[in-house]
Specification:
5 helices, elongated
Length: 134
């Protein structure tokens, strides 16, 4: 059996193996990790985080960004590894219900409201200008 196991930030395959063995119990089986990818995170005290938080407060006064772990897949770990850079999976939405949006991510019917696409584009522009000092 092949199982896709997502590692949490800071977690190693050995950490996950202990949890897997505890869940499976005793028996004749082997656990082999074919690829240990993911489980990375970026620091929060960065100019990018500040730029995103600043943008967020302009569209929702008093709002604050909150980090969380997502069970989905992201290419952010490849960016962090290849370029030693900061990467967050942040894209603001206001139009589409967040529960609906969560179910649609990478689904066969993935979509986004046009107003949310415009909002995300404005966020990218704002963050770029903030980081470039414009």
């Amino acid at each position: 059996m092949t199982v896709d196991c997502r590692l949490l930030p800071g977690q190693t395959p050995q950490d996950a193996e202990g949890i897997i063995r505890a869940a499976l119990g005793d028996g004749e089986y082997e656990i082999e990790f074919l690829d240990a990818v993911g489980g990375t995170r970026s620091e929060l005290a960065t100019p990018l985080w500040d730029a995103l938080e600043s943008f967020t407060s302009t569209i929702e006064p008093g709002a604050r960004l909150v980090p969380f772990a997502c069970p989905g897949f992201t290419d952010s770990h490849f960016l962090r590894e290849a370029y030693g850079t900061t990467a967050y999976g942040f894209f603001p939405i206001k139009e589409m219900d967040s529960e609906v949006a969560t179910k649609l991510v990478h689904s066969a019917n993935e979509r986004i409201a046009v107003d949310d696409l415009e909002l995300g584009t404005n966020m990218l522009r704002s963050a770029s200008m903030s980081l470039l000092g414009s």
